[in-house]
Amino acid sequence: MRRRHLPLLALPLLAGPAGAIPAVTRFRIMREGSAIGTHTVTLSEAGGELTARTEVIVQVKLVGITVFRLTHNFTEVWAGDRLRSVTSHHDRNGTVKDMTARAEGGAILVQGPEGPLRLSAEAAPLSWWEPRRFDRPLFDSETGKLLRLQWTRTPGPGAATTFRATGDEEGEGQYAADGTWLAWRTKGDDGSLVTYERA
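Now predict its structure.
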């Protein structure tokens, strides 16, 4: 499992009408059965563009002392199925990483910790919230670096589907028949199980 940080961000890429997609999706972040944070995605539409704002807050305490703290604020703007821009502010235990991306000249131009990058116009941030983007070139929502991923898809009970990623990122997301994001799981830096539960 990926060990650089606990959660992966979940942001939507809508290739069609919003349909059953909720305006706000909230999760409790659980570590070995104990709540350690929250993950909230808020969608809004105006002027033909979709804005997705994600806030991740994680705090792990041991004997009353905070031993791990992470915040990640991430905003995407989409026009149809095309990414227009991204802004990301990631703070892990006081180490800050900022990343921006914008559509320009038939490409996605990224500026972040990996330096300037030029990605395909089809590229999108890795999104566990919206499984329809999994067949696109995906980049890291923290650094902007293009990811090498392999996907498997497994049918589940009640017409649910589980998507599992391996490679540069490792995790597993579960989705209802209408595409609604239901749950997520991975492992933390210390090998502990980290899961998302709908709040």
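Confidence is low (pLDDT under 50) at residues 1-20.
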